[in-house]
């Protein structure tokens, strides 16, 4: 089971070290060897996952590293057979994360995203942020123009993004009411609300709400268009949630 450095002899020893004590140096090296640049995974990443999960209840470092691995598990790593062998560990990790979130921890968002990955909602796990300054670019299903959807402290709107002017021709989003939510959207909303994360819950209500296209005035559900472009079977990512303001005064 080679790691990100192509070596096969370092990870087992490092795992033994962190199992004996909270060795910061060993944890740092494990992170470098199991998740190259927090993105690429290798066979050792999945081989180490169950051991990390066993440590996760008492170790924030183990929980974070296991979460990072799981959040990247939908990538092109060529280890689908090893991922399948982690099914029991993933189920155990899912229960652990759910209990952890109920304690309203400091690492709530990271743990919430890891729980989304455990539920195989990898597209939401990858791009969901804290809704302070988030943007999702989606294609209008009717006229195909790229619509920028903003959900953050600067507003909750759909717009056409102009390189020089910023977001122009803004239209207010229409958040989904609690009773209108269903499926994964309802589960995401209810989980955040249960844990007292009101800003996250409100952002999810807008994300699963409706937006108006500034070009053709058609109305569509933001989450549906985002998921169709980024979920399983999508041709490729066409939307993102960068945590920065656009260029220009918009």
Computed CA radius of gyration, to the nearest angstrom: 20 Å
Let me know the average pLDDT. 91
Strands, count: 6
Strand content: 5-15%
Structural class by sheet pairing and helices: alpha+beta
Shape: elongated
Q: What order do the helices and strands follow? A: HHHHHHHHEEEEHHEEH
Uncertain stretches: 233-250
Throw out a few tags for this protein:
46% helix, 250 residues, alpha+beta, elongated, four-stranded antiparallel sheet, disordered C terminus, two-stranded antiparallel ribbon, 14% strand, single chain
General description of the model:
This protein is α+β, with helices and mostly antiparallel strands. It has helices at 11-20, 24-34, 43-56, 60-71, 80-84, 87-102, 108-118, 122-127, 183-194, 198-207, 222-230, and strands at residues 133-139, 146-152, 155-162, 166-172, 210-212, 219-221. Helix 1 runs parallel beside helix 3 (43-56), helix 6 runs antiparallel to helix 7 and helix 9 (183-194) packs antiparallel against helix 10 (198-207). The protein is elongated and about 60 Å long. The termini are far apart. Residues 233-250 have low confidence and may be disordered.
Note the topology.
Elements: H1 11-20, H2 24-34, H3 43-56, H4 60-71, H5 80-84, H6 87-102, H7 108-118, H8 122-127, E1 133-139, E2 146-152, E3 155-162, E4 166-172, H9 183-194, H10 198-207, E5 210-212, E6 219-221, H11 222-230
Antiparallel strand pairs: 1-2, 2-3, 3-4, 5-6
Helix pairs in contact: 1-2, 1-3, 3-4, 3-6, 4-7, 6-7, 9-10
């Amino acid at each position: 089971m080679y790691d990100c450095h192509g070596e096969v002899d370092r990870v087992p020893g490092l795992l033994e070290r962190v199992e004996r004590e909270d060795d910061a140096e060993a944890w740092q090296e494990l992170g470098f060897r199991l998740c190259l640049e927090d993105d690429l995974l290798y066979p050792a990443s999945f081989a180490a996952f169950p051991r990390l999960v066993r440590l996760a209840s008492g170790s924030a470092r183990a929980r974070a590293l296991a979460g990072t691995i799981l959040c990247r598990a939908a990538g092109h790593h060529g280890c689908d057979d090893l991922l399948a062998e982690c099914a029991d560990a993933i189920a155990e990790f899912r229960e652990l994360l759910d209990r952890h979130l109920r304690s309203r921890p400091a690492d709530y968002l990271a743990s919430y995203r890891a729980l989304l990955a455990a539920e195989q909602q990898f597209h939401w796990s990858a791009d969901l942020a804290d809704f302070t300054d988030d943007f999702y670019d989606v294609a209008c299903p009717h006229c195909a123009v790229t619509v920028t959807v903003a959900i953050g402290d600067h507003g909750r709107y759909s717009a056409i993004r102009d390189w020089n002017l910023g977001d122009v021709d803004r239209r207010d989003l229409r958040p989904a009411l609690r009773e209108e939510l269903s499926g994964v959207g309802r589960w995401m909303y209810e989980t955040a609300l249960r844990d007292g994360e009101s800003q996250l819950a409100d952002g999810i209500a807008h994300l699963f709400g409706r937006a108006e296209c500034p070009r053709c005035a058609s109305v569509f559900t933001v989450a549906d268009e985002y998921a169709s472009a980024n979920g399983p079977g999508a041709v490729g990512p066409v939307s993102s949630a960068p945590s920065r303001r656009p260029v220009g005064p918009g």
